[in-house]
Structures are given as C-alpha cells and as structure tokens.
Queue: 3 jobs
Job 1
Amino acid sequence: MNKKYIAVVLLFSGLFIFSTLLSYAFNIYRQIYVGDQEEGKPFIVEADATPTPTPDPLGPKNILLLGYGGAGHEGGLLTDTIIVAHIVPRQNQVFLISIPRDIALPLPIKKDGEENLKVNHAYAIGSDNINYKNKPDEFSGEAGGGNLAKYALKQITGLDMDYFISVNFDGFKNIITNLGGVSVYIPYTFDDKFYPVKGLENETCGKSEEDIAALTATLSANLLEREFQCRYETLHFDKGQQLLDSESALKFVRSRHSEINGGDFGRSQRQQALLIAIKNKLISYKSITKIIPIVNSIAKNLRTDINFTEAFDLAKDQGDFTDIKIETISLSTDNVLSEAYGVGGQYVLIPRNGENKWEVIHEFIRENLQR
C-alpha cells in the first residue's frame, strides 16, 4: 500500500478517515463503518437488469466532516464542527466549506412532522434512537446521525453529501497526540475568559438554588456565563506560528468567547486552519510512520459510511497529494447569513433573504467553487 494512496485519503477527510485505508486493519474498519452492509456479508454489488449511467470517477465528491464532544460533555452529540470537504479531483483541489452550528432549519424529528432546530442538532437527533423513536427510518440506526446531518447540509448548501465522517473530542486529541502536535499560524493574539471546564458545567459557584433560578430566568446565555466564572478557564494564544499539543489544539478550535474575532465565525476559520496544519503534517514522512497508532487510537471514536471500496476509489482517482490545493469558504453574517431569534428567544442564524430561503447560500457556494 503506497504512501500516495494513504495520504490522499487522509487529506480528503482531514481528521477522520485514517482507519478505512488499511486493508490489514479491516477489523478496526468494521468498528467505524456504519453504512448499510448487513453483518457477516461481504461488500457485493448486485447485478441490475436496468442499465444506469456510469458515474464520472473524477467528478466532485462531498464529504461531511463532523466533530462532537462525546461522552462526558454537555450536549455530547451536538456537533461543534461542521465542515463540507468538496473534492475536485480534476483540479487536484479541495474546498473546505465551514457551516456555523447556529443555522436554523426544519428537521424531520418524526415521520409526520418537522421542527425548526439548529443544524448542530441533526447528528444528535439521528443518533438518538430512544428519545426520537418516531423519526423517519432512514435517520435511525447506526448511520442515522450521519444521514440526518447529510440531509440537513444538502438543504443548506445545495450540494449532495456523498459521505460523512464523525469524530469525538477524544478521537481528535488522539490524532494530534500521535502526530506529535501540529504547527498552526495564529494571525492575532487573543484571550478567551470563558472556556468551559469539563466537569464544572453545573458548579454553583457559591450561589443558592434560588439565586440560580432567578439568574437563569432573567439573563441571556452570554450574561449568565459571567455570573458563573468558576465554570470557566481563561485561554491565551499568541500571534505567530505555534506548535499545539492535543489539549491546546482542541481549545484553539473550540474557543468562541474572545473579544477579537470570537464567536462561531472565528471558530470556523480556526478549524479550517487546523485542518490545513494537519494536512501539512501528514504529508511529511515523519508523520506517515505514525499512521498505525493513529488508527488504533481513534477507531472507537470515529464513524463513517465510506466503505472500503469507495475509500480506495477516492484515493485512486486523485492526483499527486503533495500538490493538492486547499481553499476555504465560510458562511457568515458578512456574506449570506442574518442573525435572528427562534422559539423562546434562542439566537439563530438564517439565510439573509429570509428563513429557509436557501438559494442565496447555494449561489454563494457555487460562485466560490468556480473561482
């Protein structure tokens, strides 16, 4: 198995796809694959009497990349990271399209109805077969979370999602650790005084139950955070090229309370920067030798619907991985989104030309993919 085959697919899926590429680690692959294959059956393409058009092997592909907290985190299946990797083999190019988690859209939470929710709920609802028993069948089971997220992202972007890959925070940190850290250029110095400390989400900070009830009833989420400072730590990042370890890298991509380019839009840009940094580290020979421990460390924290054959085809059809060009696209209030408030006064983002009017976003993405 040559280095080009391994590295190209690693690049395409950024943080997540390592396990699917190693034929001698098929047992690990079976842990992460959540597609439609029945247990115990090989991957077989059934004959079809009806001729179908041959797909273009070099046509664009869209892989939905999802990052979430996992067990032990509040809202553990809500996706913090939502990025569409639009792969264009003919141009040896990849576009990373960052999607803010606060975009609101209708999600089919039951067979006969939808509910307007933030897009970061899609993976969580699809993965929850206890509290959402009556959702459509295609959004149930092992692949339910990925399938519902793909459904949601097609509405927002206008692009068909070919595959999804999801990884939790532990898997993310294991990747960075096994790479020996990654070097990221930080364009400006910033502080975040309200980064949540795991395990202190419900700390009272010396306040009584009555005090907490009164504050919760009267303050918005941002103001409420300031009343419970014991739940948070202060982050500091200096401008310039920085080597980030696993903990620092996770904090770098999750931070959203800095006064300088804070919020989800700034976070999207940092997530893109880290993916590019990981790509740069992976194509070095030193990092390629660390593929096996990465595979072993993330298998239990990763899920995908890319089967082994499809992973091989993605690699085979791509050009020289060292020459791949990465472009970034970010949706924000500077271009196609507007701030709004949903049910109960919850902060959300909607298309600039109106709720559920996605064409302005579709057009923006189409134009940027053609640049």
Job 2
Amino acid sequence: MDQRERLQEQVREACQQSRPLQIQGAGTKRFYGRKTADAEPLLLREHQGIVDYEPSELFVTLRAGTSLQTLQEQLAEAGQMLPFEPPFFGAEATIGGTLACGFSGPRRPYAGSARDYVLGVHMLNGLGESLRFGGQVMKNVAGYDVSRLLVGSLGTLGILLEVTLKVLPRPERELTLVHDTDMATAIVRMNQWAGQPLPLSASAWDGAHLYLRLSGTEKAVAAAQSKIGGAVLDENDGILFWKNLREHRHVFFQGSAALWRLAVAPATPPLALPGQTLIEWGGGQRWLRGQRDASALQTLAAEHGGHATLFRGGDHAKEVFQPLPPALFALHQRLKNAFDPHGILNPGRLYAAL
C-alpha cells in the first residue's frame, strides 16, 4: 500500500509548525538508541509492498514498511537471500527499521553489512521534500552516496519510503563446526582462518565453544571442513544455533541485565573485563552483560580501534553511543541541518544534540 502522499503531507505540516515527529514502523527496535520525549508518531507500517523484484538482475525494490518476513519469503522462492542476514528482533520487523538501525547478522564480516547492499533510496527530508538517490545497480557513484548514509542514522536524516537492495543466491550447502576452546585460542583461530581462502560465513565463541559456519558449494564446504576439523552440528541444530544467536535468543542474552556491544579490531586479544563475554564476527564484535562504567568501556574500545554501545537495557535517557570527536560531530550536525533544518525527525534518538 502506497502511503507517500499521507506521509509527505504530515511531514510538511510538522515542519511548518516545528512539531517533532517520532518515526515508527512495527516497533520491534524501539529499544535501540536514546530514549526521547514523546512526539507525534509518523506511522510507516502501512506503507508496504514489493515494488520491483528481478531475480535475474539480483535486486529488489520495496517500501519501507514491508516486513522482513514477507521479503525473505519472496527471495526464498527464487533461491535468494539478503546477504547481510539481518536480525528481526520481532516477527513484525520491517526493512525500514532494519536499515535505520543498520543491523546486520552473523554473515556480516564475511559478506558485508546492510549498508553495502543498499543500491538506492526514495526518501523524505525534514522539509517534506521527496528525494531519490542511487539506482538499481552497484555502479552508482555520481555525487554523494546518500543512500548508504541513511543506514544506521535512526531516522534522524530522513524518512525512508522505498529502498533498492542487492540480493544474492543462497549457498548450495551450509555446515556448522564446533571446537572446544578458550577465548584467546578462539580469537586466534577465527583470524587465522579468516585470512585463508575458506568459505566462512559466520563465527562465534560462547564462553566454551567456537562455532564456525561454512557456506558454499558442496566441494568447497567439504574441503574446508577437512582443513578446519571439529565436531559437526546436525543441520537443523546448526540453523537453530545461528538463528538464536542472531535474534538474541541464545542463553547469553537472556535476562534483563544491560547489554553492551563492543566493536573492536578482530585480532584484539581477550579484554580484561569482569563477567561473561560472547564473541562474534571473527572477533570484531563482543557482547557484555551488566552495569558498566560507560566512559571506561568506551575508552577501552577506542584503544582497540573501535567503539562501545549500550545496546539494550540500562539507562537510555543518557548517551548510548560512543562520543564522537569534535570535528566528526560537527560534520554530523551539518548533515542534520542540511537534511532536517528544523530538527523535527527523531530528535535526540542518535545523540542528544542531534
């Protein structure tokens, strides 16, 4: 259902009256980002539907309110998939919310992030103007890459109306291998194997076991299995493990304790932090539970080439993302002023001053 006219009119009226808008899809990712004051809801859930899908051309164009489930079912019929394996975090998850948060799943370090697969967008800026960027092929390099700029911006720069994504064929075979090992050894092995021509598509260490997923042709997967070794998970158990990890249903994520995400250089050795750690993305993504000193955690992450985010739980009225250097923050402010000069789109969701 095309809701462009309704959405555009609401944004224009809000702009004229300087009324803040809270962009809402299905609400499955409301936990992410800063908690902000109540504002007039801009509802995108009914703006849905697949506009254009060409399996032979490996792209799909769809409206932002389209559910991930609908999209993935359509792709599966043609033997294709979203390569960045996004988490749902709720059955009604939409493609717009997924891209606004910039979420990618276990396949991310080996296949690329959500941003890498965005070819083009149709959006509304904070003035209610209809803008289009990019197209339907990878080689769209004229001008600024605004399409990908919107990914992870939490709706602070514009409202996604439509998005064109690159899709890929599903692998012929997938296999999950398990090694009993400690954290330090797991990190070393993940990085060693990532540097070799192996069909890795996911990796994780859960505190006792290193899990590795292989994806590709029968021959390539068999050869990699012979090289890596380890116990083989039953196919259905392997599928369930990666789904539970992606959707935060793994036992590590259970409970209400604050959840922190650290992005660091993959080869970073074990960090001297109390409590349990779960590692993904070849060592590049590390999850921590419990109350932490945010400043100390962010400093530690920066020392190892990354950043720390309060992902879920804890106090989201404060800043939840890594503070930006002054020059970079000034650039963010200039972008916000250019796309949303009256500051009405999800104000404060990303940073208090944005």
Job 3
Amino acid sequence: LEELLKSKKKILKVVRDETLEIKEKYGDERRTTVVAHGVKDFSMEDVIPNEQAIIVLTRDGYIKRLPPDTFKQQHRGGKGVMGLATKEEDVVEDLLVAMTHSDLLFFTTRGRVFKLKVYDVPQTSRTAKGMAIVNFLELGPSEKVSSILSLADLGDYKYLAMVTKSGTIKKVDIQDFESVRRSGLIAIKLRDEDALEWVKPSKGKEEMVLVSSKGQAIRFKETDVRGMGRVASGVRGMRLGRGDSVVSLGIVDSGMVNKGMLELLVVGKNGYGKRTNMKNFKVQHRGGSGIKAGKVTPKTGEIVYAQVSESVDERDLIVISEKGQVIRLAFGDIPVLGRATQGVRIMSFKEGGDSVASVTFI
C-alpha cells in the first residue's frame, strides 16, 4: 500500500483499471441528453406521461380519472363489478376516453362551454367518489355538465352539432371554441326550460340521427341545418310527443349507411340492448317525428342510450348502473335485430330497483 501511495503513476493505473472494470460491468447507453444551452421552464406536460385515461362524471357533478384497464372484459348478461361508489341517489352520467395531455371541452345544460386539461382531473381508485366538478369549472347553481369532448379528436371536423332535450338542433364552427376563457363561453342560446344535452363533431356534409327515449329515431341530411353563430338558438331537429325527449345525437356517413356498414345500438333502462342496421332507417326531412327504433315496454324500460357504430367494431362497451355496478363486454356480443324489437338482456342487476345509467365505448 505504501509503495502504491508513493507512486502517482501506480495510483492512476489503479484508478484506470477500476474505472474500466465499472464500465464493463455497469456501462450502458446514456439516458439523458447533454445540451449546450440552459434548460427552459418546465410545463406540466413535461412531467406527466401522455397516456390513455377514462374520465368519469356523475349526474350530481363528481368527476375522476381512471386507467383504461380498470374494468376487465366480461360476457353479455354478466353482473360486472362495482365501478364507482356514488353518493346516495347519485348516478354515473358520462364516460370519456382521452389522452392525459388533451384539452377537454365541457358543455353545460345552460348552453355554456368550459375547457380543462385531462391531467387536471384527479386520478383515483375504481371505487372512489371523485371530486366535485365545481372545483374545476365556474358553474352556476343549477348548471350541470351535459357533454364532454376531447379537442385532440376534433382535427378532421368542421362543426360542432348540438341538440337540446326538446329536439332543437344547431351547428357551430369548431374554430369558435379555440379560445375558451375560464368563466366559459356561450355555446347556444336556449329557449324557455330547454337544456343542451348532446354535442358532437361533424364535417358539414354528413347525415344526422336523433333518437328519443320513447323509441323514435329520425335520420336527415346535415345540410338541412345551416351553420350558425354561438349565440343562435338553432332550429327544430325532431318533433317529440308528450313526455318524450332526445337521448342521442349521431353523425353518420351516407355512403357507409348505404353499404350496410353502420348500425344503431340502443340500450334500455332495464338492461336490454340490440343493434339495428342503419339501412333500416330511411332519410327524412328535419323536424319530423321519425320512425320506430326500438320497442319500448315495461320490461325494457325507456331508451337511455343510443349510438351509431360500424358493424365490425372491435371496441368494448362499458355499462354502468345507477348504483355504480359496471360490466365491460364486446360490442359483437350484442345481436343484430330489427327496428321494432325489444332486444336482449345485456346486463343483470345485483340489487333490485337498479337500472342502466350510462354506456360508453372503449
């Protein structure tokens, strides 16, 4: 040791040998980048991974974020798992799949729109209640979120089509919603006690499909509805009977309909569902009462969800009940039936008095 310490050359040789030994044993490619200039300020996107997430919103205004693998796939008619612990008399209202870096547009029943980042929604466990949406959006006393859209999914579209519960429809250029201030913007001027319930993107030359809770559906050309400003009230899209209301807005491509490539999925309140080819729904003029889309009976309950989808769709459905029960099943497990039929049971309930509250694709 003394000989080593007396010789600078020997010390450097030991250092070299040990360094080479460490390099050979632990050496790998550099994981960081060396830059010649200073590092700029970090943003939230720099420290949050951009990954898929499920946004869950309840009727009473509680919101949370979940990973997409929270719910495993099951077969049609299964009982599912507990997916969301809601407070008493609360139900799940909406589910949306988006990337964590995306901007979300929140449309409210009072016809206003707000913007929020997906990562600003707190991620919680599957059975947690979430946080009140009023902590993130400046909502009025009786104002609720009715539709959520991800801006990242709107690049190929020109308009946002809006439908109220009484059947009024309008479309607005998407560019009118590029800058949404914190206090929100007016998206539609509502009449009387009406409420904005449905908002979907469109390309301007497609067809629109409205479905009502009593089982009626109307299909008409999008050109029947001209583009309007944000503060316009809109025009009549569907004539509704007493006690009826709109439960769905669909935007479809006429070419795909004529080729039999699109189907209408309807789900009843009591857990019954079916698929019907869109060729069975003829094109009508805007403002009519439509034709039968499903046979509504006490066994099926009123229609609570309807969605136009491709006939061959590899996505899954997540169905959530009013008491927080969840089932995930393949879209292909639901049978294709005629227009005026009841459908088959797609969800059984663990508790009496439970019913379907929300359905979404994932």
